Amino acid sequence: MYPLYLYKEMSNQCEVSMDKKKVMIKVDNVSMRFRMSNDRITSIKEMVTQTLKGKVKFKEFYALKDASFEIYKGEVVGIIGRNGAGKSTILKIISGILKPTTGTVTRNGNIVPMLELGSGFDYDLSGRENIFLNGAILGYSKQFLKEKYNEIVEFSELGDFIEMPIRNYSSGMLMRLAFSIATVVNPEILIVDEILAVGDENFQKKSYARMMELMSGGTTVLFVSHNMDQIREMCNRVVWLDGGTVKMAGETKEICDVYKI
Amino acid sequence: MNENKYDLKKIGQIALLVYILCMAVFTVGAYNVIFQSINKALYVGIVILGAIIIGFYFAYLQWCDKHNKKSLGIYFIRTYCKYQFLIEQLVTRDFKIKYKRSILGVFWSFLNPLLMMLVQYFVFVTIMKFEIPHYAIYLLCGIVIFNGFNDCTTQSMRSITGNATLITKVYVPKYIYPISKVCSASINILLSMAPLLLVTFVYGLFNDLYLKPSILLLPFALITLIIFIMGMGFLLSSLMVFFHDIEFLWGVVASMWMYATPIIYDINTIAVGKLSWVASIIKLNPMYHYVEFVRSIIISGTSPALSEYVICLAYSFGMFAIGAFVFKKTQDKFVLYI
Predict the structure, then answer these.
(1) Whole-angstrom Cα distance, residue B23 to residue B304?
(2) pLDDT tens digits for B113-130?
(3) B-chain residue closest to A146, CA distance
(4) B147 with B141: CB under 8 angstroms?
């Protein structure tokens, strides 16, 4: 047991060494409140009748409550927690899809979120057209897509099928195409919801290797997983969310050991 | 991967060229009206003043860019460069999908209004009779403009709810969706002008109605109409997220709106007598002004009065401002209600 002032000094030293690194993502007191009414009211008639009956009661539900943490350049940070702990919510807030009820998120650098692959696909268009459409949605420039087009097709192993409408693709082909488009960039910040290994065994190996390559190349990675072995293997730091609050944050080993129990 | 390359000098030059072109077209198209109300020297003075203002504004923007100062113009140019590719992709997607599985393809964009015109021509010209000069063309102008408006607003209304899967998964500024939808839908309005002009030309050969230089003013009417539609699109698409009833309600409102616009009838017939108050209400209807603008260009062959230009511009930018305001206020809640 150390006296209190020593603790303080130690933590100060810690902050100093951290300050040297550039903060890439700063999550500051973020709360996300959802309102749950008994049924979501989506028609005027319903709203009027329900209000007249005095039935519109909102149950408030905090998916996140005062969560704060920082992520530094080049780190691989894992987010762990049980189902409903707010992991996906925090990823959505960081990638800008949801706006927090209170608190702020600052991001320094371009973010590529890999939350759900191929959500921008249009099934009547061909593979080639979808590469450009999906690429544009992910924020790639025209020039960049033209340069990388061959690389994407080659990685996806689709060959001549690329000119076919993707409604005729098998689910494996779709995932391969989506994966190839999403991982062609080298983003500054990469957000991953579960490591993606798609396709047959061969492609799984290849995609796993590609993910590893992306994560090791100096990119800042934010990574959600339930697989503790993966977390231990890859992360520098871990943030443990529980019931919408940050329960613990720190070195991987330390937190994983506590989390197990 | 996201370089925003833009050359302000080039953009400035293009803006100046476009301005000169617009003024030239306007002067030729509205020759009579302009010189009836303003004297020549004053008009030339105003035109040159406009050019000088544009020139100076871009010089100012360049200065801002060099000194890293914020300004609204640069912000617009940057956002445009950033999302221009995405909008382009979304518009081509909408357009390709629409005709992907049909044999005639894009040709339907011409054929559809043409066939519609024939049906309505038959119904209203041969069965019902109105005492309006060149009634066939009078009717068709109204139908084409109003159908375009109706089609565009209905499609853009669904632009947010229809892209729900994207909005909940990827971050893209939400205004991109209504804008790209209005762009792709308004291509149809532009395309339907071709059959309208064709029919007018053929009809004119037999009935002494010739297209005059005033036809050059058509782009003005269409652009103001499209800006108006964009405002409606913003408004309706954001309301649609919270109340799905809007979808069904809008069908009724649109048909009411259609009858409140003098498409089949002539407003002058009700302007006298008991119903004159109806006529004065109809004159508040923005669509009335757009339709009358087009009719004046095509049938009378003269530019409308200068006040009509002001009214059209005021309606379109007014609607745009209202729509954009509502959209901006509500957009953060979209994700929660979709």
Answers:
(1) 16
(2) 788 878 877 887 777 777
(3) B1
(4) no
| Contact at CB, B89 and A136, closer than 8 angstroms | yes
Query: Which of A44, A129, A136 comes nearest B86 by C-beta?
Result: A136
Structure tokens at A41: 């009211």
Answer yes or no: is the ipTM higher than 0.85.
no
Location of structure tokens 């231990």: A232
B170 pLDDT more than 50: yes
Query: B1 to chain A: which residues are within 8 Å by CB?
Result: 110, 139-141, 144, 185, 187
- Per-chain mean pLDDT for chain B: 87
Q: Is the dihedral of CA B247, B252, B257, B262 positive or negative?
A: positive
CA-CA distance, B267 to B259, in Å (whole number)?
11
> Cα–Cα distances in Å, from B25 out to B18, B29, B44?
10, 6, 14
For residue A41, what pLDDT is reported? Answer: 60
What integer is the mean pLDDT of A167-181?
Answer: 88
B250 neighbors B153 (Cβ within 8 angstroms): yes
C-alpha angle B138-B199-B263 in degrees, rounded to nearest 5: 20
- In degrees rounded to 5, what are phi and psi of residue B211? -70, 135
- The nearest CA of chain B is from the CA of A87 a distance in Å of 15
**CA atoms of A26 and A61, how far apart (whole Å):** 24
Look up the pTM and report it. Answer: 0.85
